[in-house]
Design goal:
Length: 113
Amino acid sequence: MHEYPITQQIIKIAENHAKKANSAKVITINLVVGEYSGFIGESIQMYFDVISENTLCDGAKINIQRVKPKLRCNQCGTYFERKAFSFQCPACGGEGGPTEIGKEFYIDSIEVE
Ligand SMILES: [Zn+2]
């Protein structure tokens, strides 16, 4: 449910962006959403369709670029995707630790008319 306030924020940011560009319509909002960000893309689109009515974002499309979480090897520094039940580095067999990759949540770009 926490997608609701964040979607309101996204619409506000996009509207400001459109106003600054002297545009009356937002066409596309490109979002980057990590799988560990805690936000679900489908929910954002669902709320967006409802909240954006009668705003400059009415009818705009949300484009979501998903980011898979990655671990970083403690020994050789390789970034890799975690396999089920394993933290093992595919390059050297060392142990991987968590990184910020996969926790992203931001607006990459906004396209206006
Ligand atoms: Zn390694």
